[in-house]
Design brief:
The chain is α+β, with helices and mostly antiparallel strands. Helix content is 40%, strand content 20%. It folds into 2 domains: 218 residues, no CATH class; 111 residues, Homeodomain-like (Arc Repressor Mutant, subunit A), CATH 1.10.10.
């Protein structure tokens, strides 16, 4: 059964998997152990890339057609195949095999993998919504498997362990096995790794190993230093208040919004944001208010407020640690809460954890 995390390290199962298995695999094999999936069997056959040793592909039958999800209530899912237990999302999904042989369902085929290997699901690729078992019944000892998945999420990286055992799929089961790491670099490493693995020919992918190594190192550091929190209970609230990169090329103001939400723990100035948008300060502030309906300062303040709310309700961090996480002093955080919520941060946490509405 899944292992509970310890009090000394809230995410010890995740940290152990990253340090003792994935980091070792990355050092030894780099990206050679990663299989890049394709949306369909036909498209996978066109990929000019040898499969790692022990990996093979089998066909599967689709029972339903793609159904677009127009209202993304969770901010990620953009399509489902309702009779097949499949969905697709707008971000890449990287799945590492930790234990047991695995047969990952992807559209109308399966990728049969072994421990030490990984599969990248590009955006739009159909994969299991959690209702399908990943056990590889074509191999011996297929009664149990364990995987670790990563995906870019709201300017950081979501990490979670999942299992197949005793005819059931276990995911988001124990608090210590699912966390969100708020780190803009980790987000960029994972998003860029996905783009490069998809777009670049195999002979030009040496830099991808560097990206993967950097990603794993940052995740280990952030989890070890407790710059992560259990995101399982906060998904709806958090994703509804976060800015995701648009599917189409974002405007300079949209890029600024995303940058702000990805760097709330840093010093943010109008001058630096305007410079990143290649605009003068005056023109940037006018355009920002025109697009968002808020001043730059107001937008940053309210973004920090929303992030602080998530942390207050979904972690046991003290208020001073949360204030540091969102880039302001405890006194400033208290002032913002009193202005917008008429409550101190501690009172907000106490009331809402007792079932009151925000």
């Amino acid at each position: 059964m899944p292992v509970q995390s310890t009090a000394s390290q809230p995410f010890s199962p995740l940290l152990d998997a990253l340090r003792k298995q994935i980091a070792v695999t990355v050092r030894e094999s780099g990206i050679d152990s990663i299989i890049v999936a394709a949306p369909s069997w036909k498209e996978f056959q066109r990929i000019d890339c040898p499969l790692p040793e022990g990996v093979f592909i089998t066909r599967a039958t689709l029972k339903s057609k793609r159904v677009a999800v127009k209202v993304r209530s969770n901010g990620l899912v953009n399509a489902r195949w309702p009779e097949d237990g499949l969905l697709s999302i707008i971000e890449p999904n990287l799945c590492f095999i930790l234990e047991g042989p695995v047969a990952l369902r992807v559209g109308d085929y399966k990728i049969h993998c072994l421990p030490g290997q990984a599969v990248l699901m590009p955006p739009g690729t159909p994969f299991s919504d959690g209702s399908l078992l990943g056990l590889d019944e074509s191999r011996a000892n297929s009664r149990y498997c364990r995987k670790l998945s990563l995906r870019p999420w709201a300017g950081g990286v979501e990490c979670w362990l999942n299992y197949d055992q005793n005819g059931r799929h276990w995911s988001y089961h124990n608090p210590g096995e699912h966390c969100y790491v708020q780190n803009a670099k980790a987000y960029q490493y994972l998003a860029t790794l996905g783009e490069e693995l998809i777009a670049c020919p195999p002979e030009y992918r040496l830099h991808c190993t560097g990206l993967l190594s950097a990603l794993v190192a940052v995740l280990i550091r952030e989890i070890r230093e407790r710059h992560a929190f259990d995101a399982a209970r906060s998904k709806g609230m958090f994703l509804n208040t976060a800015i995701h990169p648009p599917l189409q090329k974002p405007s300079p103001i949209e890029q600024a919004q995303f940058y702000i939400n990805s760097h709330l723990n840093e010093q943010l100035s109008i001058e630096s944001l305007a410079k990143r948008a290649y605009m003068s300060r005056a023109y940037f502030t006018r355009q920002f208010r025109l697009v968002t309906g808020k001043s730059v300062v107001e937008y940053i303040t309210q973004s920090r407020l929303q992030k602080a709310k998530v942390l207050l309700l979904n972690t046991k961090w003290p208020v001073n640690q949360i204030s540091s996480f969102v880039g302001i002093s405890p006194d400033r955080l208290r002032s913002i809460f009193l202005q917008y919520e008429q409550l101190t941060p501690s009172d907000f946490r106490r009331q809402n954890q007792n079932g009151h509405e925000t």
